Structure formats: structure tokens, C-alpha cells
Amino acid sequence: MSDATPDPTAADTAASPETPGFDAMTRDIAEVPAVEVIVTVAVNLMSAAAVKLGLTEDGAEHKDLDEARKLVHALAGLLDASTTEVSSFHAAPLRDGLKSLQLAFREASLVPDEPGQGPGEKYTGPVYG
Asked: Could you read off the pLDDT of 12-22 as tens digits, one per residue?
């Protein structure tokens, strides 16, 4: 009986130009400045939080405030931790977006958190409308 399990290293060596292997991806990410990686992750967290807050065209279909809370909190932690690493040119719009998401979370909640207790407010301080 033959083993039908594919060899995991075969996929890396047989990668086509359309699907680069791990080595190619590693070389590509090595060329990306850290600030770009941080900003990209922050934007992805913001986008995911907006979807979970129901702020997209499909609104209620994807709304999940528990998931949104986690994403907003993670975004606030990332921005707090990277404050000294990211220039104000990049940080200011990210902080504005975070505040907008925090306010949207408060508005979407049936029972809003007390000021200072909302998602990410551990890092940003209380957010008021």
C-alpha cells in the first residue's frame, strides 16, 4: 500500500511563478520596511473591525460585537506599542480610525460600556463622542 500523503517540501520546490514558494515570500517580506508592515496590519484590523461592527453595505449580515471588541482592542494595543516606531504621518490617521471604531462600537452596543471600559480604552483612555 502506498502512502498518499504529499511531501510538504515538494510544494516549495515545485512552486510556479503564479504561486511563489516560501523562499520567494521570505525574500519579498525582507524588503518591506517595518513601518509598512505595522500600518498594513493596522489597516487590516480596522477593516475587519468595521465589518464586524456592521459598517459595510451588508451591515447586519456580518455584525458581531464580540468579535469587533477583540479586533478594536488588538488595534489599540498595536498602535500603543508602535507609537515610537511609526511617524505621526502614519500614526495620526490610524489613531483617528481607531477612535471612530471605538465610537461606532459604543453606538452599536445595546448597553454601552462605561467610559474607559470600551474596547481598546485600556490603551487610549476614555473615548467620548
From this structure: 455 566 766 77
- Residue at grid coordinates 512552486: 15
Helix (H), strand (E), coil (C) string for the chain: CCCCCCCHHHHHHCCCCCCCCHHHHHHHHHCCCHHHHHHHHHHHHHHHHHHHCCCCCCHHHCCCHHHHHHHHHHHHHHHHHCCCCCCHHHHHHHHHHHHHHHHHHHHHCCCCCCCCCCCCHHHHCCCCC
Q: For residue range 21-62, what is the model confidence (pLDDT) as tens digits? A: 777 767 678 889 999 999 999 999 999 999 999 999 988 899
pTM: 0.78
Cα torsion 104, 105, 108, 110: sign: negative
Q: What is the largest CA-CA distance in the chain?
A: 67
